[in-house]
Inverse folding.
């Protein structure tokens, strides 16, 4: 870990931030001060402790139903992170495999995979989210699947493009000439060369998915209440921006902080994993 | 409520209307505009920001209250409502019931459509026939399903026959579902054209309409009530609350509706703005499925009512801009009885009642609510679920998107508890209660005594005699507690100081009296 | 090449058809609009009758077939909500959406490319850090929150810009910026990372070793290849932009296709949803085809299969 930080301070900083968020997510029951869904209407819209009639009992204030913002924020870490990481990971695995296969094998396989990607891309996300929510119910599992479906195509297309180019490269030609199997070539020669851009894309995607979850909540299609996710808190806080801005500001900052950390980590890892750069150092 | 037909009392009496008509004829003899009282020419332009725009200007294909309350500016019905909510004449000067299933309307003479066509009995017959014709596939057909047929008696008299006695017909044929079309124009123009190029008798003409962008109304100078005060009204749909309020604050629009309750206090402090609120006749309630135990036990239902602190909900979610309702009769409706007191908030009493009913440790139940639709139901639902959980009723909230919730109601697959609201556009409690006891759409409460009371009320023509009969109805419903009784919220309008506008209690956005000062 | 284009167009038609079928079934399966079209006082019996009158209770396949037969003639049906032909309704909203999304894309690219190139060529230095900082913040901000903040600041507090609605430059600035900010951040990072890759490529190192000036090197040799992933991602992002445009169009009541479509989806207005999905799918598919063709033009080493 320390070696990682020394090789790339960026990755180190990122790992630290992400680590903090993960700890918060895992230790939520210990860190939170109240039950995140406990309402108390007489305590509604109380400001954070440094303003007005705020108190340390609710250090970051309360929302429109009197629920503690700080506790919801901590539990929100758990849920928002889980959804986003799972969805991004699922999408990445599917997308990278699809892209490698399409780019390397070409021909009919390439056409089918790319057309499927086109179909998926051309499909309005909102309709998909609506349908899944209406048919299968709005729960975490379904939301993960919906968001994974919106992300695999990016990997597929980019990786395919790169594969098309890599396929013609000397070291690949050489491996084929030596009689290596397709799978071995893909895994050994193509995959490492696409990992760097995939890493960058993955970090972007986790960030995008966290934001997408908030957009879906904004449209009323996200995780159902009273579950606290950062996106939901943002959507709920939207009606109160001019009167009780803290309800939206803190989850917004949490998203910013977390996404920043993920990106630092991704960038740092990219620097470390790039084989060409490794050759250079 | 005003008497609907002065002639019934004394056929020879010179009514105010007669006097006005004489004046009108005299004015005509003097070469002025016949039928329309003399008024100053309309001037000025008002800009309005609304949360939604109408879906169509075809009165038979309207969807949603937002459309009905707006297109009443371009069309007229046989009756209308005044600013207190009383039913008054419009295109019909008077009406009376000939027998149990026939109403007769005496129509106003000298009224013209915007394109010059005459309004007469043929217009009424054409319009009602079109509305009830299955080929039209009218979305309002359900509200006019009591109509059996329309008969032209003479050029300005029609008889409308109903299948069963319908005491609400004059209200139906008013601004709600009786907006009148011109036969000649409608046949010539066709269905698609009417949706965007209406031809009505109303105070305004629709000049341009770019959907989701702007809608321009222009005064009808020959309007039979007299020309409106303002010449042009530009309507901008501004969907986002924050943007709408911002438009008013920035002076981009002169009037907006609605204002979210959370912003009212802040805007009231602004000297350049005037904020007016009015109790909207939308009755919020939680329907209890009385067929499913333990809700068949009245003690459990009453316990639910004691468990929820409705006043706290009004204070925190609506910032006090609402009225606690003891039953499902709203404040502006005929016969509202303020002496029937709402259930007080008493969680210990709720627990005691639950114990008496055999549930000292509460029970589990599902609670449906939804997002979208004309008003916010999911926030109050969350609050209610919280209160129920505090007395041991472990309610699990299901939230649906509004269009997905509809089919659940139709198929009677709703949870034993679900929140809903109904706009009492008829301002008549019997209409609401009949709907709530229909035995479908998730509402299964039935009570023979209640039916009997309602039938007697519906057979009473005189509103003054109907009103007191509703007291017993409200007492019965309260004791039976087939719902968790909630509230009606206020509708808030914001306007600049140069606008003179008073909202109506039945939600209609009646722009005719809107005036501009300076 | 011609054969390739022809084949791609043929599959494009299949894709569009596929999207149409899937969206029809999905919209249908989430419930028909009968209950929300009728006034609240309607009884269950009246709702059933309405469904029968409008043909909503026929099997899905029958309804789709009815739709398809007319759609091939360009008739996507009369909107259930607006009473007008649905394809022209959507088409009339296109100019507004194009105005918004193209402005946003131009804004994003115009900021991202120079920023990304600068960051790549001054890698590790303060310029790089600043550029990355801007990019990171840009992609972490929820755009709807940013939009409302912008309205509150620029329109209400300072009175500089109009609060909402469509119009010229003053009206399009805030919504376009709200859409562009996420995209700009993404593109900046992508340009930077691919530029870094390219700069360490053999042929670029050769060019530098030949002593050509730094600037010449970057623009002549590195940039065109750096554009490949950029072009890909922009093409891909078109679909996302339209999605993001939905939220922004709602906040600013920008009368575009996105806003109109989401209203139609929530209202179960099938004909409009179908018309909109058709137009969007066609646009995305054509853009992807253009992207693929640009690949070949930019990197002659790629063979077209």
């Amino acid at each position: 870990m320390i070696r990682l930080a020394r090789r790339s301070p960026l990755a180190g900083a990122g790992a630290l931030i992400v680590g903090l968020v993960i700890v918060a997510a895992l230790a939520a029951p210990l860190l939170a001060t109240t039950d995140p869904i406990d309402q108390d209407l007489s305590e509604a819209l109380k400001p954070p402790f440094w303003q007005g009639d705020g108190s340390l009992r609710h250090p970051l204030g309360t929302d429109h139903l009197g629920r503690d913002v700080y506790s919801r924020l901590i539990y929100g870490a758990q849920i928002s992170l889980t959804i986003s990481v799972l969805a991004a990971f699922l999408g990445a695995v599917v997308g990278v495999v699809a892209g490698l296969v399409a780019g390397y094998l070409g021909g009919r396989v390439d056409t089918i995979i790319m057309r499927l990607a086109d179909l998926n891309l051309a499909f309005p996300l909102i309709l998909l989210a609506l349908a899944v929510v209406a048919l299968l119910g709005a729960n975490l599992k379904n939301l993960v699947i919906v968001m994974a479906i919106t992300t695999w195509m990016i990997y597929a297309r980019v990786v395919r493009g790169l594969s098309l180019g890599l396929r013609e490269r000397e070291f690949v030609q050489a491996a084929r000439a030596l009689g290596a199997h397709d799978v071995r070539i893909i895994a050994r020669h193509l995959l490492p060369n696409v990992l760097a851009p995939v890493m960058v894309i993955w970090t972007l995607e986790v960030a995008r998915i966290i934001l997408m979850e908030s957009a879906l909540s904004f449209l009323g299609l996200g995780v159902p209440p009273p579950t606290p996710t950062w996106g939901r808190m943002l959507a709920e806080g939207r009606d109160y921006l001019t009167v009780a801005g803290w309800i939206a500001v803190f989850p917004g900052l949490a998203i910013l902080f977390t996404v920043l950390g993920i990106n630092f980590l991704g960038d740092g890892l990219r620097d470390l994993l790039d084989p060409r750069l490794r050759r250079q150092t | 409520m005003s008497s609907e037909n002065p002639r019934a009392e004394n056929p020879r009496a010179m009514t105010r209307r007669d006097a006005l008509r004489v004046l009108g004829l005299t004015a005509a003899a003097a070469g002025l505009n016949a039928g329309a009282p003399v008024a100053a020419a309309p001037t000025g332009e008002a800009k309005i920001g609304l949360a939604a725009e109408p879906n169509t200007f075809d009165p038979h294909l309207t969807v949603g209250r937002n459309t009905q309350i707006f297109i009443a500016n371009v069309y007229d019905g046989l009756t209308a409502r005044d600013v207190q909510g009383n039913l008054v004449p419009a295109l019909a000067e008077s009406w009376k019931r000939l027998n149990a299933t026939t109403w007769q309307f005496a129509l106003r003479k000298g009224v013209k459509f915007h394109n010059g066509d005459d309004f007469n009995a043929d217009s009424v017959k054409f319009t009602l026939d079109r509305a009830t014709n299955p080929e039209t596939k009218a979305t309002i057909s359900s509200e006019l399903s009591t109509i059996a047929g329309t008969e032209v008696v003479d050029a300005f008299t029609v008889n409308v026959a109903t299948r069963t006695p319908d005491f609400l017909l004059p209200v139906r044929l008013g601004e709600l579902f009786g907006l009148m079309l011109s036969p000649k124009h409608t046949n010539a123009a066709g269905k698609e054209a009417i949706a965007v190029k209406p031809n009505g008798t109303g105070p305004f003409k629709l000049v341009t309409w770019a959907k989701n962008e702007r809608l321009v109304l222009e005064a009808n100078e020959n309007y039979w009530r007299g020309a409106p005060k303002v010449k042009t009204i530009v309507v901008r749909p501004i969907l986002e609350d924050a943007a709408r309020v911002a438009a008013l604050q920035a002076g981009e629009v002169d009037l907006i509706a609605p204002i979210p309750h959370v912003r009212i206090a802040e805007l009231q402090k602004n000297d350049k703005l005037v904020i007016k609120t009015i109790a909207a006749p939308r009755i919020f309630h939680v329907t209890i499925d009385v067929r499913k135990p333990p809700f068949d036990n009245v003690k459990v239902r009453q316990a639910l009512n004691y468990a929820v602190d409705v006043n706290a909900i009004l204070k925190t979610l609506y910032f006090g801009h609402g009225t606690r309702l003891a039953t499902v009769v709203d404040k502006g409706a005929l016969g509202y009885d303020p002496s029937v007191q709402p259930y007080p908030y008493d969680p210990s009493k709720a627990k005691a009642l639950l114990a008496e009913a055999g549930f000292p440790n509460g029970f589990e139940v599902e609670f449906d609510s939804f997002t979208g639709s004309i008003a916010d139901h999911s926030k109050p639902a969350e609050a209610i679920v919280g209160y129920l959980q505090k007395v041991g009723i472990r309610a699990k909230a299901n939230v649906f998107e509004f269009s997905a919730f509809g089919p659940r109601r139709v198929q009677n697959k709703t949870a034993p508890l679900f929140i809903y609201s109904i706009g009492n556009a008829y301002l008549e409690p019997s209409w609401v209660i009949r709907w709530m006891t229909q035995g479908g759409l998730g509402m299964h409460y039935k009570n023979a005594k209640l039916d009997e009371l309602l039938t007697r009320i519906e057979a009473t023509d005189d509103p003054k005699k109907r009103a007191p009969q509703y007291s017993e109805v409200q007492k019965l419903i309260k004791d039976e507690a087939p719902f968790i009784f909630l509230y009606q919220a206020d509708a808030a309008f914001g306007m600049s100081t140069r606008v003179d506008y008073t909202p109506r209690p039945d939600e209609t956005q009646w722009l005719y009296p809107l005036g501009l000062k300076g | 090449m011609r054969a390739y284009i022809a084949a791609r167009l043929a599959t494009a038609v299949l894709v569009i058809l596929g999207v149409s079928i899937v969206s029809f079934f999905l919209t249908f399966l989430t419930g028909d609009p009968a209950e929300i079209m009728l006034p609240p006082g309607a009884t269950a019996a009246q709702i059933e009758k309405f469904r029968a009158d409008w043909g909503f209770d026929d099997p899905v396949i029958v309804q789709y077939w009815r739709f398809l037969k007319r759609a091939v003639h360009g008739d996507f049906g009369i909107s259930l909500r607006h009473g007008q032909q649905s394809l022209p309704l959507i088409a009339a909203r296109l100019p507004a959406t194009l105005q918004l999304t193209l402005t946003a894309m131009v804004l994003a690219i115009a900021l991202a490319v120079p920023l990304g190139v600068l960051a790549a060529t001054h890698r590790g230095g303060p310029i790089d850090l600043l550029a990355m900082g801007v990019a990171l913040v840009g992609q972490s901000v929820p755009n709807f929150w940013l939009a409302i903040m912008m309205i509150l600041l620029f329109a209400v507090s300072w009175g500089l810009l109009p609060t909402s609605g469509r119009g010229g430059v003053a009206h399009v600035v805030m919504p376009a910026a709200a859409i562009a900010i996420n995209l700009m951040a993404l593109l900046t990072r992508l340009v930077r990372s691919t530029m870094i890759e390219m700069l360490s490529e053999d042929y670029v190192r050769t060019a530098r070793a030949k002593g050509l000036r730094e600037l010449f090197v970057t623009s002549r040799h590195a940039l065109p290849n750096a554009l490949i992933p950029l072009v890909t991602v922009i093409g891909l992002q078109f679909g996302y932009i339209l999605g993001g445009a939905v939220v922004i169009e709602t906040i600013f009541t920008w009368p575009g296709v996105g806003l109109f479509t989401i209203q139609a989806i929530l209202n179960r207005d099938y004909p409009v949803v179908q018309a909109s999905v058709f137009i969007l799918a066609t646009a995305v598919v054509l853009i992807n085809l253009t992207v693929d063709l640009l690949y070949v033009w930019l990197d002659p080493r790629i063979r077209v299969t």
Observations:
- Chain A has 13 helices and no strands.
